[in-house]
């Protein structure tokens, strides 16, 4: 075959793929259900549950019935003779039961007699979209906002996907909220979306700009204790509820990263949150008030949320929930949990996880996040929280999330919010079986890949407690040296890694920023001592000397080199594992995932080389002979920047 | 240190390096001799030998004396009391003796009493420069021609370097010779160069265009049997010898790759060569007539030289030497030896090695060639040849050869032409000791790296007998698919690899092109049988089925994957070995070599990925799980071309 023949045949193969009606392009997510040609008899309560089963269910006849005494959104599924009975206290419960049944069908688990009883662990299972009015998605790596020009079919698929994993709320717009989010035109658009999501048990919420009374209402102030301000909010909230009777409430980012807030008027977070809560209360709406606050002058950003919110513990209204990121700084590959979670005793809290991979290779890296959440829940009891929020990784890309495997994080978020006791492996297994195939060889191999992926990412990006050494602004790739003149220090990596001739890391012990004191006493002691501090958090809490002896017997520097290199070897292993799965996967998704894994592997070498060569300028120590040596040049990496904004996924990293 | 501080300090370090008078920039090659402040007494024969010793020799007084009975260019060095006596039959011998002494000084071997007797194995030890009148060097990767605007200091260094390793001839211009090489202006320039090289025992030669009588002389023909043509050549040769009394002779590429030759006029190579030989004979000049011939219509290019030259065996004049490339196709990473060497019995032959790395990563890859020449000499007895030619890798780059380690190939060529029995290790050791340091740790490590480098290059470029799958035109990097429409087939890789659904390789057995028949019977039988053919030449001689069982027990396809991957791991090992040498090497050369080794490592991955993914489109077999999987995409590699000519070294390969 000549080159031309080869290229032509490749072209036609691709064309053949594209023109197939049911091409596996990821658009069907984990709901790869075909319409049944001979629908089963579905009787009982009419509604979405019935429609879904009529369209997709291939088993015995199903009876849908309402039953008092069951938990809100809970359900039972029982085989009764030749029928299956799904019972629930409300429509949403029936729908969740229907999806449970369809999940069993897709994972090949419908043979046994059914006796299932389920109820959600959290009442509120909420996606946070960071979507802007212009259609960009902050930290979105999968195209434009699905809410920009909502396509009814896509919106229905979005609703079905959410409902199938129990997600029952969605915040439509970015926490960095434009005041226009509350304009009448904007609210009418929200109403239209709410109407389309309602049949799937999903309520809509909005992020609001705290200065809206000024910017939208034309008032001279947004002081939460000002009566005219309160009046304006009442009127606005009435307007919303007239359009959206089941509107969920507000998500508020206030006095954070330049957003306005009650402190601008001499009031506290509690004053602001409680005012809005009061206005929403008659409508049964809630306020989710974010604790993501930090100030440029702070000697330790990790201390800030605690310092601002602990004094307010017990002062928040009963329909306010403080929404706290899982880590104290930001959504890093690994952080200790945010100490606010164990400190606040008289405040309703919810955790904010980030599904979109702002700090985990965007839509290019395969990083399955459930193990990270499991790690969080090993420190923070699920029962100490009221709810779970997940920053969505959804856009208008055909496959929704940019990376086929990023869909797993959306899926896992819903499942974990329904039941935090589900193991990451259980969730991965059922997602894989539905999304690709239930072949056990495939599921066991790829599930292992997924389970190992987060620790691998930590290794090649930020092992041993290193954090926030990402490229400026877009956060894709390494820039531990990033430090533009005049930029606030806490937006630059050197603020966090503090590399010098002595060592690496942020001293947060009692001799440093005393961040350890925000943790319960036992943890405080554990973290405070460099010899007992878990090594995976070592430079988070300590400025670790280059020659510090690690448990492996290696010096800290040598261990660092090994960790980075381990990460590279892990990505190579993943690639080989995936390549071995070719016969189980349709051509399009196989190839698209393979391309992403290749990017990830090349990126892991970039991370290793950039970080080791940069830190080596401080350590002045050789890279050990038993790890691979850098293949890129520090000066060239330092001169490289990906020309993207915070709204885009790069084509690739340092190397094509 | 901030980024800015870091960059500034790096800048100043570099500036400091640049401004140091004796910066180790590679310009001194292996002659890193400092002028002695207190010269030793050197007595006897005046000349270059005396000057060199007066300038650089730090030991006992030396007596230079002429002595009959010693071989041409040979010498003895003997300790006599507190003196050292160098004796030789001619000035060149004294000079070689002087450099021998200086080499001992540089390698730290001057303590013992000396009793050395040396003579060169070959009379003619000749560099071939492929330099064009416009200053470009064909397959030159180290800048422009040193002969374009010859700098007297550089030319002196060039002469010293050559003399120090016994090189005694240099062809000033490209074998693809422009007729203007014989213009009067050009000859006067050659005279000037000859005058500067003469004190160092180096004769100059010229490549000629066979059609010169037409193009320079204005004759209607260049028929070698035409009297006017012969007359024109006589006159031209007389003109040359008037300018350059010790002119060496002509190098001729005729009827090869479009160059004119005797066949254009119905004459044979012997007719052409003998005519020129006759004209040169009275002046003691010689003709080096190249056997590098092949025709586009040939079913096997490897057969061509033999087919054209064997019938002429015994017909060449006694001052004609047939110059044959070491392999039958071109200067590939591995070829069997050219069968002409063992077939021609009545013809003077010389081997043409290529020092410039046209097919070995140009000036970016560290590939030490002495092991390749040793392999050649294990098949072709050195005594069966009259001379050795090496295609120079020299340009006007500060370090002469582009890559510091490419200097070793220039050095090794001279040493091997002096004594083909020297082992690659002996040559590497003495080159390293002179060029860097005689520290035994350094020499033993880096010598091993050098010795392993050629086999590594074969592994990551063209293992198991694969050949000529290089990128079109510039020959840097892999393009096994290269096959532009209309291009003659033997200039495209598919002509050589013949990959198809069955397997890979060129059937040159008795059932194929019968190339094996050109070898002696024992080798013919060995090569003809796929089960006895050395595996490192397997696809050279056989179209090997993908499932052919190899000695390792693997299939051929799996073995191919392993070989490519071995090559990648070798380059990584070299990089780590070099990194460990930092304390032994000056900063500039350490860093420059490190950068090149990093390119080589990245290129080795490119080679592996491009070749395996391309061949996989034929084999349809998976890449084994125990080798690393490709990290680049075939379509992207196929769309990549380095925008360089055949006169340049690329900045890097596929990845920066």
Q: What do you see in this structure?
A:
Two copies of one chain form a homodimer. Chain A is an alpha/beta fold. Chain A is built from 20 helices and 15 strands. Chain A has helices spanning 3-19, 48-56, 91-106, 152-164, 184-197, 212-215, 227-243, 269-280, 304-309, 340-343, 370-377, 407-418, 424-435, 440-461, 493-497, 521-528, 538-541, 556-579, 587-619, 634-638; strands at 42-44, 62-66, 75-80, 83-88, 115-118, 124-128, 169-171, 203-208, 249-252, 286-290, 320-325, 349-354, 387-391, 503-504, 544-545. In chain A, the strands form three sheets. In chain A, strands 6-7-8-9-10-11-12-13 form an eight-stranded parallel beta barrel. In chain A, β6, α4 and β7 (169-171) form a beta-alpha-beta unit. The longest helix of chain A is centred in the last third of the chain and has 33 residues, at 587-619. The radius of gyration of chain A is 25 Å and the shape is globular. Residues 1-21 of chain A have low confidence and may be disordered. The A-B interface holds A 1-4, 6-7, 10, 481-483, 485, 494, 572, 575-576, 579-580, 582, 595, 598, 601-602, 617-618, 622-623, 625, 628-633, 635-636, 638, 654-656 and B 1-4, 6-7, 10, 481-485, 494, 500, 572, 575-576, 579-580, 582, 595, 598, 601-602, 617-618, 622-623, 625, 628-633, 635-636, 638, 654-656.
């Amino acid at each position: 075959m000549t080159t031309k023949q080869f290229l032509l045949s490749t072209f036609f193969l691709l064309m053949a793929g594209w023109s197939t009606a049911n091409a596996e392009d990821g658009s069907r997510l984990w709901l790869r259900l075909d319409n049944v040609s001979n629908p089963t008899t579905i009787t009982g309560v009419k509604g979405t549950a019935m429609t879904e089963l009529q369209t997709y269910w291939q088993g015995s006849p199903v009876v849908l019935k309402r039953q008092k005494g069951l938990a809100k959104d809970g359900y039972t599924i029982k085989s009764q003779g030749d029928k299956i009975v799904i019972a629930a206290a409300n429509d949403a419960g029936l729908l969740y039961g229907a999806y449970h049944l369809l999940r069993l069908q897709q994972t090949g688990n419908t043979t046994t007699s059914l006796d299932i009883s389920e109820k959600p662990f959290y009442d509120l299972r909420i996606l946070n979209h960071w979507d802007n009015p212009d259609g960009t998605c902050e930290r979105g790596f999968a195209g434009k906002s699905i809410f920009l020009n909502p396509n009814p079919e896509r919106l229905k698929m979005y609703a079905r996907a959410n409902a199938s994993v129990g997600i029952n709320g969605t915040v439509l717009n970015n926490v960095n909220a434009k005041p226009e989010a509350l304009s009448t035109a904007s609210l009418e658009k929200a109403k239209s979306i709410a109407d389309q999501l309602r049949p799937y048990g999903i309520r809509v919420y909005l992020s609001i700009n705290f200065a809206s009374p000024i910017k939208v209402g034309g008032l001279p102030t947004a002081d939460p204790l000002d009566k005219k301000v309160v009046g304006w909010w009442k009127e606005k909230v009435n307007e919303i509820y007239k359009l959206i009777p089941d509107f969920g409430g507000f998500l508020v980012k206030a006095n954070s990263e330049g957003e306005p807030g009650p402190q601008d008027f001499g009031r506290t977070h509690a004053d602001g949150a409680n005012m809005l809560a009061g206005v929403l209360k008659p409508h049964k709406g809630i306020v989710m008030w974010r604790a993501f606050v930090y100030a440029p002058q702070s000697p330790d950003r990790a201390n800030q949320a605690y310092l601002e919110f602990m004094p307010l513990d017990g002062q928040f209204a009963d329909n306010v929930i403080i929404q706290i990121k899982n880590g104290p700084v930001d959504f890093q590959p690994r952080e200790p949990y945010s100490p606010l979670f164990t400190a606040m005793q008289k405040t309703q809290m919810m955790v904010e996880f980030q599904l979109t991979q702002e700090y985990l290779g965007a839509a290019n890296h395969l990083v399955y996040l459930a193990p990270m959440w499991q790690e969080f829940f090993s420190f923070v009891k699920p029962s100490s929280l009221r709810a779970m929020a997940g920053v969505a990784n959804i856009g208008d890309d055909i496959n929704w999330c940019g990376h086929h495997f990023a869909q797993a994080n959306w899926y896992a978020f819903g499942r974990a919010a329904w039941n935090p006791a589900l193991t990451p492996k259980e969730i991965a297994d059922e997602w894989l079986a539905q999304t690709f195939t239930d072949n056990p060889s495939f599921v066991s191999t790829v599930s292992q890949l997924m389970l190992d992926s987060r620790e691998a990412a930590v290794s090649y990006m930020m092992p041993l407690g290193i954090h926030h050494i990402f490229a400026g602004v877009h956060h894709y790739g390494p820039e531990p040296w990033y430090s533009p003149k005049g930029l606030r220090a806490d937006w630059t990596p050197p603020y966090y890694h503090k590399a010098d001739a002595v060592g690496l890391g942020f001293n947060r012990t009692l001799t440093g920023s005393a961040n350890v004191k925000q943790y319960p006493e036992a943890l405080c002691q554990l973290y405070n001592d460099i010899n007992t501090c878990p090594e995976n958090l070592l430079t988070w809490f300590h400025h670790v000397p280059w020659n510090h002896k690690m448990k492996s017997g290696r010096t800290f520097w040598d261990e660092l080199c090994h960790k980075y290199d381990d990460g590279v070897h892990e990505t190579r292993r993943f690639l080989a594992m995936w390549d071995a799965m070719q016969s189980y996967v349709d051509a399009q998704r196989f190839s698209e995932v393979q391309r992403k894994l290749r990017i990830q592997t090349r990126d892991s070498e970039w991370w290793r080389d950039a970080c080791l060569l940069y830190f080596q300028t401080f350590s002045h120590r050789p890279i050990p002979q038993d790890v691979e040596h850098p293949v890129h040049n520090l000066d060239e990496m330092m001169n490289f920047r990906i020309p993207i904004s915070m709204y885009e996924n790069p084509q690739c990293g340092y190397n094509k």
